[in-house]
Design a protein that fits this description.
324 residues, UDP-N-acetylmuramoyl-L-alanine:D-glutamate ligase, 13 helices, 40% helix
Length: 324
């Protein structure tokens, strides 16, 4: 049985539906951005949005992708660090109820929280308190964490700890795992460009990037960026929003469209695209079907709030896999 390992920032998403964007201005959070905040600011966001409709869900980019793969029926595990608190317990329980093996480390630092504020137009703005999530360290990693898995999916946010990311990639490579990396955020790419390029060249088999991340990585337009990425790894994927996505491996390039959907909230679209693509890839469905499954999952997740797809939509998705 194929088994996937995810590793990343273990965060709990607090999803808040905004009545207008005045709260973003008050909190000095640029609309559409992902800002790191301290514990005090995180508490302030919580207090000032307490009257609004909100819900809680386990999150973090790699964890979202792993949840999607588990819902598609893959065996999966997740490595991360949470606080020894109710939020951390919520994260662990959510992994277990989703049939994901938790490989978690616990800290006395409070668990990480991603305050996701969703504007009326579906745009999301994050005020993220990383908390215990960033205490994941190279010395936590044991060889047995990697054994028994076929592929590891790594979120690019971990690149802010160069020693950790290199140790993850090195150990995964030594254990014979395929390595999938999501570049995560254009500003993270810009701040760590030389190191990231080195890691991709040395270790990475599959790279996921959106248009902004691809430009930050290569300085080029999406198609030219795709070509450059495909020279550095086995499979390059560049997502271009409403224009769909492009996949390139060797000399083969495939363009994938989007599915028609009514976007309520774009949270998790890239993460779930990766779920669909990796499921197809690991089941030898070919690049076109894998890309179409990625597009289907991305299209479904944006129709609801947060990075989770409804049970009824998962039933529909499973019926569509053979028809792609």
């Amino acid at each position: 049985m194929t088994k996937v390992l995810g590793i990343g920032n273990a965060l709990v998403d607090i999803l808040t539906k905004l009545e207008n964007d005045l709260l973003l201005e008050e909190l000095k959070l640029p609309k559409g951005s992902m800002q790191l905040v301290d514990a005090l600011t995180s508490s302030s966001i919580s207090a000032k949005s307490n009257h609004l409709e909100r819900e809680m869900a386990s999150g973090g980019s790699a964890a979202n992708t792993i949840h999607g793969l588990a819902r598609l029926g893959m065996e999966a595990s997740f490595i991360g660090t949470v606080g020894n608190d109710l939020t951390g317990q919520f994260f662990r329980d959510d992994l277990i109820s989703s049939h994901i093996t938790p490989l978690l480390f616990f800290s006395e630092t409070p668990s990480g929280i991603a305050n996701a504020m969703i504007s009326k137009d579906g745009e999301r703005t994050f005020g993220t308190f990383l908390g215990a999530a960033i205490e994941l360290a190279a010395e936590h990693l044991e060889e047995e964490h990697f054994i028994g898995h076929n592929l590891i999916h790594v979120e690019g946010y971990l690149v802010q700890n160069h020693i950790l990311l290199e140790e993850i990639l090195r150990k995964a490579h030594q254990a014979g795992l395929k390595i999938s990396l999501d570049l995560a955020s254009y500003n993270v790419v810009e701040d760590n460009l030389d190191f990231l390029r080195d890691m991709v060249n040395k270790y990475v088999d599959i790279v996921f990037a959106n248009e902004e991340e691809a430009k930050a990585f290569t300085g080029k337009s999406p198609k030219e960026a795709l070509d450059e990425l495909a020279e550095m790894c086995d499979i390059a994927i560049v997502k271009i929003g409403k224009e769909g996505s492009m996949i390139k491996s060797g000399q083969e390039t495939i363009v994938i469209g989007i599915i028609e959907s009514k976007a309520l909230d774009t949270t998790g679209a890239g993460d779930l695209y990766a779920s669909g693509f990796l499921f197809g890839y690991l089941n030898n469905l070919g690049f076109e079907k894998s890309g179409k499954l990625g597009a289907l999952l991305a299209g479904k997740v944006i129709e609801g709030y947060g990075a989770k797809i409804s049970n009824s939509d998962w039933e529909y998705i499973r019926t569509q896999i053979d028809k792609l």
